[in-house]
Design goal:
Largest sheet: 11 strands, mixed
Structural class: alpha/beta
Keywords: Disulfide bond, Glycoprotein, Hydrolase, Serine esterase, Signal
Number of helices: 18
CATH class of the largest domain: Alpha Beta
Strand content: 15-25%
Enzyme class: hydrolase
Number of domains: 3
Strand order of the largest sheet: 3-4-8-10-9-11-12-13-14-15-16
Shape: globular
Helix content: 25-40%
Family: Belongs to the type-B carboxylesterase/lipase family.
Distance between the termini: 72 Å
Protein name: Carboxylic ester hydrolase
Signal peptide: 1-18
Length: 609
Amino acid sequence: MNLVFLLFINLFCATTASGPVVETSFGPVLGKWMKSHWGYRIAAYLGIPYAEPPLGILRFETPVPWVNNWTKLRDATEDGPMCPQLNRFGEFVGDEDCLHLNIFVPELYSSEKLPVLVFVHGGAFITGSNNSTLLSPSYLLDRKLILVTVNYRLGILGFLSSGNEASPGNYGIKDVLEALKWIQENIEHFGGDPTSVTLSGQSAGASLAHHLGLSKRTEGLFDKLITHSGVANAPWGIHPSHHAKIRYTFVALAGQVGCGQSDEDIIDCLRQVDPKLLTLQLSFFQVWNGHSYCNFGPTIESDSEDAIVIRHPLSTIERGEFRDIPWISGVVSDEGLLKSMKGLLANPQFLDEFESKFEDVVSLYLETEEIVMNETVFSEELMNFYSLFDGNISEEASNINLTAMTSDGLMNYWIYEALNAQAMKMNSSVFFYEFAYEGTFTSTYSYQYPQRYGIGHADDLNYLFPISNVKYLDLQLHNTASDETMINIMTEMWANFVRTGIPQARLTPDWEPYQEDFRFMKLGMGRSPVISMEEDFLPIRMEFWRNLMSNVSAPMELIFPTREEDQDEDLDEILEEEIDQTDQSNINLLNPFLMLLPISICSLYFVHC
């Protein structure tokens, strides 16, 4: 009787009257039974710790691996607490003891070790969790894989950076890294194959996953990558550590809670502040009419044993120092509804203010304020290209144009930029998709606006997890036959990618790699779940953004100076070139060191001015 078969017997024959039991290296774990979409049984093990609670001196530190054994049966039948955050009413929820995994295993009748899909939730780096009701395994586990969902530290507790070694930041990324290490060491107890692990994420979670996928320090932890609506190089997904915004945020937070003196003293003081008080400070950093932006997120840090993000992602890609693994990346057709509908179209007062102060707020709105150096040209070009606030077109057309601008400036261009930079340097295949199916359930229901205007941010996830079905249960809607078709197509494609690195499904076209003539898969067309291969994603709009950003932003190497050895190689040459090409009156805009000088808070946080 071989070891794998013994593991199979241990996992699936060990049950109690109340649920399945797994014997792990830490002790026995009691799970619960759930049902898949097709009615199969799923063993769910919830709230399993992968790291020590980041309390006290462990706050603002790299996570410490979980090593404690439990001597009696551990109850893993309920979700662990979410990490500290503010709910939609601005109230504090969660607990710092939140570094837990949920593991879902299909009931099997063979000894085959299963591939593993690890999912990292989104939420602007400040909200979200691995809640087993929203991130339910019911769709995906009909496809015979193991699903692991991860909690990680959020907001101030997860991403506070001082811009130096006092608090380098990126604790949330390091949490996910520690979870991946735990999975490597323990997933075989659950019947999983540690040599076949796919890391996936959505929105902010996709950015974290991409950062980890670029880092050579994750070798051996996963071998495939999926990013839904997010990449590491998006302006909201990476911050330069030297930027005035980072220092302002750090010092302002210290002042808000009464911590002062040196950076090290501030961190020591912040470790003693109640997590509720710290988390409530998030509202202080919301900009422009209380809208939440990614002030706390991934930041470039000095190279060290624990560091993951040591350069701008595009610099890492340009140097060829990233992991060459199969990758699926994608967007939904109307990503911008996340902000255009929720923040503007549903509130005429905000929309009027947005129009009247467009030059002042558009970079805050698109979260490009750290890289755009010429706000006047930036705003004028956007208004002209997208025909914004044009009285000669209908209100509906104007709203669609506003959403298109938001889609491109928040998501589309940065994903396009990453694909074109990275795919052509890879031997592994890169697969790109646009989700264009307008199904019964949509995230836009939450915006309380009478019209949908398209396919919203995270709508693609609803065909892998029944998120909106759960959120909008009171609407008494049900999946249609077309919805079921899309669920079947996406879960089969994703499961085959997790298993083989090739996303394919029966009765659909072969998904050709992006490297072949910039090909991408279009998933759906309006109300129809039709699948088609397309070529060139939004070519006119993407070319506009390529030209726009080259005209209004300083070179990346100046905005994101990193390690001294990199600067020694590159910076002198770039500075000399830029001085030759730039009018002397604008030279301060290109000097990263002058960005540390005192600046108007108005230029960073419109809401406070």
